[in-house]
Amino acid sequence: MLNETKVFQAEGITLEVVDSLYNQCPPSEIKVHACTKAQKIIIRNGTVYLTNLMPNNGLGYVELIGFLVELYEASQVYRLPDVEFAYWHDDNAPGESERTADGKWKWPFAPHGLPPLLAWSKAAVHGAVLVPYCGAFRCPRDSFDAIMGEVHNLSFTPFSQRSEVAFGRWNIFCAWYYRGALKTADGQPAPCPRAHYDELHHKYPQLLLTAAMGRNTSDGTLAHGVPLHSQHKHKYLVSTDGWSISSKFDKYLLLGSAILKAEGLTYGWYYPALRPYEHYLPIMSKHKDDILEVLEWAKAHEAEAEAVGQRAQTFAMRNLNRPMRLCYIFRLLTELSKYMKYTPDCSRRAQCVPLVEEIKFLAKHDHHAHKCRYQEVLAQYGYDDPDGKPGFSGYEELKRKHEEIPAHAGFG
């Protein structure tokens, strides 16, 4: 995925195009422009600074918090290069950074080039550069990091003793590309898998337990959430995308079950390294009901299906662990820095808040203190970080600054 930085090869990253991220949002824009919703960041002499703060109604999204915490940890493990960029924490990368019909990239707010926009999910048409979905990897109780610590316990349920009913659980909402943009191999538009597999569950309850949350299952009970720590009891796990990539897919890779993954157009930072039939079994691929054929094959070839789950688990533990994610962030920012046509400096921006201070602020905030494991980094680095203020001395100042920013309709 580091190759995606080549979108900057032609023009480089100029001050002019980065300044466009700070310009007042065009009132005619239907989509929320990155000048409002993106978190802008400068790294200078190894220190990470936030050059804008979110309004209160844009504060607290785990997609943003997780990235800030992981970026701060990366800055303490590695000497990060001088670079300026923006992080887009919404489900899909800004639609304005798109490839045109002639193969060029467009960004309508500057005459030349693309700004460096980092995102955790995108389609190939977007010019954003992917980073890990850090919030899902490290913040919740059932985060990737937490489940990785339980792999030993999961192994006590061998594949042969797991249920043969394929399991999936989700809310029913689907990405934009299930409205006709994604077609299966038979040329038909792919239906929303979350809704379609809910219907298939009622037709084939002996094969599928894929009821959407809040709807009745085939036995008349209401479907509810099932902890990820318990889903490994099924041989086959069905993964579907929501508004964008599934935050559960990374975790499913750890469980040792064979994953049946519905095809989609959006992808995450490591997806190109995965191989169908090697790390997962593709569904919603040949036709809308091919999940039934995949399950039939898996049950007739149990050893091969089990091997798919084992390879997925090995891949995840080797490549998606926290040290690898921090290394990836370091390497990505190093690549970005090679295209910088100017030296980033806080003097050009209206505010420049040390990232460590924002993390201390979030760790003390009544509504956000429990949304991530801030102390994992603060206890190691934050309290004697010479680039931040000692203790929580910046809390009241940052609280006031966040409150002074008008709420924006693009959030929440």
TrEMBL record:
Keywords: Transferase. Pfam families: Glyco_transf_90. The keyword Transmembrane does not apply. InterPro entries: CAP10, O-Glucosyltr/Glycosyltrsf_90. The keyword Transferase applies. It comes from the Eukaryota. GO terms for molecular function: transferase activity. Coiled coil: none annotated. Belongs to the glycosyltransferase 90 family. This is Glycosyl transferase CAP10 domain-containing protein.
